[in-house]
Write a structure and sequence with these properties.
single chain; six-stranded mixed β-sheet; alpha+beta; flat; 42% strand; 3 domains; 3 helices; 6 strands
Length: 233
Amino acid sequence: MTDRIVSWVRRAGRAALTVGVVALCGCEALGMRPSVDIAVPTHAVPLPQVAPETNNGAIFQAAQYRPLFEDHRARLVGDTLTVQIVEKVSATQKSTSSIDKTGKVSAGLSAVPFLPSSTFSRAKATGDSSNAFAGKGSTENTNDFSGVITATVTGVLPNGHLLISGEKQIGVNDNVDVLRFSGQVDPRSIQPGNSVASAQIANVRLEHKGRGAQADAQVIGWLARFFLSVLPI
């Protein structure tokens, strides 16, 4: 009897220890604070090995050319460019359909050879049919985003277009706001002041999200998501 009690106490102690460890891990996970990702310097990223260009001694060098009588604007890899983000997307779709069909049939028998006319005086047949359908649907989507971000030129295409990419992270207390932008810019679209509107940038990739308590409050918990995927209603 004593051995059973000792064994039971040991099992209870192990269970309590396991529950305590899980609770501590849960508290640690809930107490984690989001941090701002510090970007590494651009020169730390390994660049592809290319053959060095031979200096011909001329004043004009294609790899380092910048017009003398022109406002500063992004041209080479590593230059910065200010992007004016103004994205407005609005789509509306409406559809209406209706079907109405009505039919009527009437037949009667007045006389038959070799039989008196009174035999089929009440032989009549009538039929009516009606079919109606009406449907209506509408879809509306509106998206409005504005902001400013400074991006870096990450590549230059053979036609002179610039590949840009930028990221901005702002951390306040327990919340981090992340903004990422990338796209392809035609140098002719760059306005004075080295800025360009996002509507004139091709292949735009825009991401704006947050990390922290506010972002977690807008997400359904994993247990609720599990039941939403399992329950048929």
